[in-house]
Amino acid sequence: MLFFTFFTFFTVSGTAVSDPIVHDAEHYILEAQFGERWQQEDRQLNRRLAELREKHGTPPNIVHIMWDDTALGEVGIPAIQSVRGFKTPNINQMANDGINFMRMYTEPACTPTRAAFQTGRYAVRSGMHTVSFPVEYSGMDAGEVTIAEVLDKAGYNTAFFGKWHLGDTEFSYAHKQGYDEAFFTPYNQVPSMWIPQAEVANVITGLYPDLHGEDQYDLDQSHQPRGVVWTIEGTKGGPSREWGPPPDIKNYWDIETEAQKRTLAFIDKSVADKKPFFISYQPILTAFFPDPREKKRLTANKNVGAEGLVKLDAFVGKLFEHLQSQGVAENTLVIVMADNGPFIHYGPRGMVETLYRGGKGDFTEGGVRVPMLATWPGVIKPGQIVGDILHVTDLYTTFANLGGAKKYIPRDRIIDGVDQTSLFLNGDGFSRRDYVMIYQGPNLAAGVKGRFKRDWKNAEVGLSKNEFYDLFTDPREMHGEMIEQFHVKSMFNRQRQRHELWIKKYPNRPDATPGPALTGLENVRPETVEIYTAPVDPKKLPFDPQEVSEQPLPFSGSDL
Amino acid sequence: MLFFTFFTFFTVSGTAVSDPIVHDAEHYILEAQFGERWQQEDRQLNRRLAELREKHGTPPNIVHIMWDDTALGEVGIPAIQSVRGFKTPNINQMANDGINFMRMYTEPACTPTRAAFQTGRYAVRSGMHTVSFPVEYSGMDAGEVTIAEVLDKAGYNTAFFGKWHLGDTEFSYAHKQGYDEAFFTPYNQVPSMWIPQAEVANVITGLYPDLHGEDQYDLDQSHQPRGVVWTIEGTKGGPSREWGPPPDIKNYWDIETEAQKRTLAFIDKSVADKKPFFISYQPILTAFFPDPREKKRLTANKNVGAEGLVKLDAFVGKLFEHLQSQGVAENTLVIVMADNGPFIHYGPRGMVETLYRGGKGDFTEGGVRVPMLATWPGVIKPGQIVGDILHVTDLYTTFANLGGAKKYIPRDRIIDGVDQTSLFLNGDGFSRRDYVMIYQGPNLAAGVKGRFKRDWKNAEVGLSKNEFYDLFTDPREMHGEMIEQFHVKSMFNRQRQRHELWIKKYPNRPDATPGPALTGLENVRPETVEIYTAPVDPKKLPFDPQEVSEQPLPFSGSDL
């Protein structure tokens, strides 16, 4: 039975495209039904893109902004903001000027979503399925092919600014992963509190043990690092440098300011170069400490998430002005989105559910369904609400197609991202996806197909009632059904079997690739050296530290 | 201390208006601060209303539509509807043409909200605090003064069509409570299933015991009625009649069709009379059985609530066309709203939370914060989102003010409704209310003041953490706070003390007023006679049935 199914796919795929991208198995079920319609659409879309390229002299510029931990509905819908006590007029204006996507799926946490965006693959495939924390001693493998690498081959200027969060090994640095220019934090925002001032403010992390009173029981001086690096800058082929002074409460927000400044400057440089540009700016948005430069909060809500969004919103306004003044507004696709749901579990006050249940880390819709808005004057029609399913990996394939770079997408691995050019240009109802597989770390937790969702994680033997959901009638996944939805049981079984078969054929990387942390910095500090230097003399140990770092780890709570 | 506070109010109120309406005590705290600004606004607003009256020859017409069980956000926000699988384009258009209110509070269930709307008073004051079910043998007291009585005195044609749900006693019939014309169901939609066909479909209610197999233990034939009345029609001073054939699955939806037909006809009649009209149409919206006339559902969602909204939406479109064709569109305020939150506890599939937690019966925001939209071409500015607090009782006072009928509002009782003319005409930020008291049945469950909310019901001794909420940062009332919000504790204490003092001065009616059910119908059926006839010979009883009906009842679950 499996073999039959397998060969069926192969034939369909084989007849449709020569040198095809390998998609997840589910894709071919749709292609078998809609492949001809898609081909017709593609002919029209390709003509349209060729006309635009003719008109502007280059393929479109792409500015991608992706921030943290925001529930679907929190931006882009002014009515909802009126009940939450903050306003993002510039982001909301994007809903008037373009598309407000209501069903963009991501991975459930920062590192996995960012890996999926960069590679066009579910994070589980690149091994980047868990959230990295300082010091991680691992990172995204050099063998992954980022969207920057793909667009670079088609002649794009590429830049990454902001929160990278894809590892602290040198091979995983953004400018080693295909970006011409990079200014990035290897970690998330957690190190914002790892400063002497935070230690004094009773957030005792132990990073500065000289601030403790004497602890006679504190024997092992090798167990944790004595410092951290906030930001690294580099250019393709050029040196890597730590940016800014050593971490201090006065400087954290300077990272954001600098990332924004560099975003605008990179536009100017590319316009001067007469080259198309791709910029992914991933704001730090917030810190675990309020901005010490501010006397008064910007919102009635006052929580760090709302404050961060309002600050980002001001930059979005500036960005549009800048694109206009540089004469490239019409040839630029701007996308703003969140990376996963709100930080509702042990997160800061005010990070809450909006339309969906769950948040960061969860496989319920609240964890993986994020706000996303897109504008492209004259190409994307204004004022659209799009209810179709799309996935963060689709941006990879879609950007590649828009940039004329589809041929540079690797063919030796599964690319989950499908080309959604038709959805962006033709609007509601034109998605080429009706399914998503939702992983938590390395575990497949749930499957989505259209309005139906199957929870594989909490399902219990004995008609547990936690298994099947209809997302139109039960959007919050509160009332699991069995009898009412048994008709989708084997449908999801087949969907999963196809998915597993494809993994057998194209295996996942088991984990993030290990390596020494924070090496290769030109302006290295003593604290940094301590991080990547063996803290005890390895010769005194009966085991090899390198071999230790390669041991598999169990997936645990803090990993997501 | 209480006395001091009391006299303070009296002075403020006494100096501000002669022959003032008695409001809830909290109002005077605001009036003391903003009374002068309000007076200035009122002078301008009165000029504006006088100009409009001059232009149109009458004060404005008012069409009020209030349906059941809908969460804030379910209508008026197309982005949310796109994730729920249904569309109400005509109602949504009202958000473009007028105001989308994001903070309209009601009572938590049908009967209380409808009583509050009719009387301008919290339902607890009129004794109408619990949901009436067939057969109830009680109803809204004749001494209550409805908005129809108030507007009638100012020369309005008044009509009520649809779900009345304010008792089954003759004195509580809609045309005995001030409406010139009435066509109404004395109960809610529950009797829609009390038909022989439903009994056969295994919804055994016992209303038709001849459908049971023989039950040798069924002794008491007086315990329940043997039939029910669905709809009553009448005119002021005229006879009351049961409308339509005896309840049958084929006919339930005819009630809605007829209510809509009469709504449009009443507009025609009033235009012909050259009189302003006030119509409250309260749709049945749905039944506990699908509409047997339909072969196919109207929505992808398919649940009864969504289906009902889409059907209602078509009527809203027709209504606007009709007002236009009758030449009165410009002089008509149209308000559409729900009566309380969704029926999430033991209600039909697909009735779910949207932005807020809880539903019908709950004091959390999900129970009492409903969608409301209002249009008034040329008077209400288009495209507004209003985040101010208002309460369903405010419609009473506001309608009275718009109709030049404020002087007919009774002065011998508390009128909770405040005049919100300024909010309707001037928009966001112009509410004259920043507080709400939320009752569940006769019990005060929670208080709202601005962004703060205090839960009095679940608060436990010992810092229970269930007590204080910030509705901007914790809209779903998930994370009760104590230490963080102790600053509002005594603020809420004072608010409640003022409220209780005022109740002492102007006492509530304890309950709905008792009486025989469904009397006074001209075309009485034998089943109806059985309902109001003592089922056993009263002479054989050692107690008086009338005295029995006057005994107080405990407040229980099914009451809300």
Automatic annotation (TrEMBL), chains A, B:
GO terms for molecular function: arylsulfatase activity. SUPFAM superfamilies: Alkaline phosphatase-like. It holds the Pfam family Sulfatase. InterPro entries: Alkaline_phosphatase_core_sf, Sulfatase, Sulfatase_N. Residues 60-404 form the Sulfatase N-terminal domain. Residues 535-560 are annotated as: Disordered. Belongs to the sulfatase family. This is Sulfatase N-terminal domain-containing protein.
